[in-house]
Amino acid sequence: LRQLQEKVEGRPDRRARGHPFSRDILVAPLPASFWEISLIFDGSSDSSRHVRDFENMSVLHGYSNPVSCRAFLSTLRGGALDWFHQLAPRSIKDFEDFAEQLTNQYSSAVAQEKTYLTLMAMRQGEKESLQKYVARYNQMCLEVPTACDEVKAGGLIRSLRPGICRTSLAKTSARTYDEVLKRCKKYINLEETEAEFAKLEEVARPDKRKEKPNSPRRGSPRRNPLKNGSSKRASPRREGRNPFHGGREDRWQGRPRLPNGQRYNTFTPINAQMGEVLAAIEEKLESKEVTRSRIVLQYHIGTDGVERISSSCATYHMTIKYPVGENVGEIVGDQLTSRSYYQTTVSNNKQMARKQAKGGEQRPDRPGGSRSKEENGRQDKGKEKMDMQPGGEVEEVQMVEGKDDRKFRIGRELGESIRSRLVDLIREFADIFAYTAEELTGIEAKIIEHRLNIDLSVKPVKQKTRHHGAEMDKIIEQEVEKLLNAGHVKKIQLPEWLSNTVMVSKSGGKWRMCIDLRDLNKACPKDLYPLPRIDQLVDSTAGCELLSLMDASQEYHQIPLAKEDWKRVSFITSRGTYCYVVMPFGLKNAGATYQRLVDQIFKDQLGRNMEVYVDDMLVKSKMEVDHVSDLRETFPTLRRFGMKLNPAKCSFGVKAGKFLGYMVTKRGIEVNPEKVRAMIEMMPPASVKEVQILTGRIAGLSRFISKVAEKSSPLFKTLKKSSKFQWTEEAQKAFEELQE
Fold first, then answer.
1. Could you tell me if residue 305 is inside a domain?
2. Which of 93, 133, 512, 683 has an alpha carbon within 20 to 30 A of 409's alpha carbon?
3. Considering the domain boundaries, does residue 712 fall inside one?
4. Coiled-coil regions in this chain (predicted)?
5. Are 615 and 555 contacting, i.e. CB atoms less than 8 angstroms apart?
């Protein structure tokens, strides 16, 4: 019986087969007062710290070595527990072996040991109190046990923000770190006392709004305040009160009535502090007839107005809700819609008023020539753009017969023979046109690449994130997605320079995403590569029978950017940070780089049958029969270098066209009708900037105006430095004479 018992006791437990613990660990009895330790380790934290904490707890509970192994196993979770079960059977003999294997396995998660350099790198925050910083510094000293008293004391004094505490410690040096802490304690008490006095003064200070109810910040008194049926001021909203259904006196009694019993159809402006808000709402009348016209409301709203009519404002959703009887009224705003209506209605009304003032009453002088932003924006839009446009009629031809999505334009006045040859040539070189951004293959870097040549002594600038709103963020993300698909940008994690996106409105209600590269441009030297003279290019083009106006597709994006400059041309959106891998628009030297490229690839044709100014390319032919041959010489060059054209802006085989702001025909250079129209419709200037715009337009038409210097002399006199801009009668007379 004794032999059978020994045989059974020597047989290993079924659960212990293949276990990483040795048999001694598995069969060791647990103490009667065993208490499980509530530590957890899953592999994501510091393994050495976990072992140290467990050892302290095991000493407290008096665990033996085998029991410590089994108790330590109960603290493992997740990946750490999976690692344990993958160990070889009977490979763990004692706790030291177990702890060593765990520490080696998760050595990458061990916190890096801090040194005295960590203390030297600490700094007190700009708005961090002395008490909080000393506590934070003290905690860091505990994590650097090797630092001596001199290092701790010197590091604390050096890291303090400039002030009386740092000055006192620097004047009289302390012997030990404890002495430095005692002296800091005095200034901590002083700082707390001053903060308490500041709070008491704030409470005792009288309300400025009661002393100055009509201060500029509060705005002028209401001319037509909303009445709520009571002469008393509305009481503050009580806890639990329905924001839309208050008491009878707190309800908004509807729009005020006119003497004839009708109601106002618009809101009276409410002057308050929240600024100017533009909202486009649908006009609703109380009669049966409802008008669905759009109006633009410009109003101010503040706390008094909100309480008086018991309204609730949701800034993010751009809505205002207010009680109307037993119902709830709602005003819904839309920034994009309101801006478009504002530009088309309010701006037009102001322009009509200015025209009436010009024809009838004398224009009053305004101090400093002040003018509204809308008027200045309209004057800026009058600046001429040097886009190339055909002078005669054109027709669209399918690049591939049966496909309407790919077309190109040719002159309608071409003969049948030349038209047929021209169409066949363009279809033969269909690959030089880019209808989508994905078709832009780009110029090879060995031919040309753009380098910033940034001044390394300039500190990189990371602009503060600019928020555009939810709707604009969607548009920005769509533009970024297009750039990502085309390979023009890529995601970046650690940019060196960082710029914001800027949204610019285009015609047709569309938006263009630009990058604010002003800070980066300041650090880049100016590329002095010369641009061609516009007057010489235009003069050499006059007298040609046929012209082909060509425009490169996203011209700057076809030039690669040097790889070391990628992290410098970076921008941020609401979704992340990106960097350009091609030359972006907005760089200081982008135009010079592109002009250097076209001068290089078209050097054999420039001045003979081709003229190029940056991205505007023109193929000219003195004789009509030679034009197809001149294009056949140009197209292979575009194909060889990988330059793509924008078919929507190209016109082939036209008799005349607008090139660099001038109308070029066989007869010579003619005045541009758009420049003449802009000059005639321009209002008299009201500031120095507008006079400068006027003189620029005069310079563009100078070759078509006789005695232009003599006629415009009174205008230049208004540009002389003076304390106040004055538009004299002499200048008005000269302005009208130039318009005639």
1. no
2. 512
3. yes
4. none
5. yes
- Residue 48, token pair as written in the block: 């050495």
Q: Which residues contact 663 (CB under 8 A, 6 or more apart)?
A: 391, 656, 657, 669, 670, 671, 672, 673
Domain assignment of residue 456, given as a range = 389-670
SS3 365: coil
- SS3 at position 88: coil
Give the position of tokens 């008194």: 221
The pair of structure tokens assigned to 644 is 């793509």
Quote the Cα angle for 144-146-150, to 5°: 95
Whether 509 and 608 share a structural domain: yes
- Amino acid identity of 701? L
- The model's pLDDT over 342-370, given as tens digits with 9 standing for 90+, comes to 555 555 555 555 555 444 444 434 333 33
Nearest Cα to Cα of residue 147 among 155, 135, 136: 155
Contact 685, 725 (CB under 8 A): no
Q: What is the Cα gyration radius of the chain?
A: 39
Q: Which two tokens stand for residue 142?
A: 């505990």
Residue finishing a domain among 85, 109, 133: 109
Which structure tokens are listed for 161? Answer: 């923000």
How many Cα atoms are found within 13 Å in the side-chain-facing hemisphere of 25? 24
18: left (phi over 0), alpha (psi -120 to 50) or beta: left
Per-residue model confidence as pLDDT tens digits over 152-202: 788 888 788 888 888 888 777 777 888 888 888 888 888 887 777 777 666
Distance CA 208, CA 215 (A): 9
Determine the Cα–Cα distance for residues 715 and 635; give it in Å rounded to an integer.
48
By C-alpha distance, which of 179, 185, 176 is closest to 135?
185
Q: Residue 645 region, left (φ>0) first, then alpha (ψ -120 to 50), else beta?
A: beta
Paired strand residues for 658: 389, 663
Cα–Cα distance for residue pair 730/153, rounded to 1 Å: 77
Give the span between the Cα atoms of 175 and 149, in whole angstroms.
9
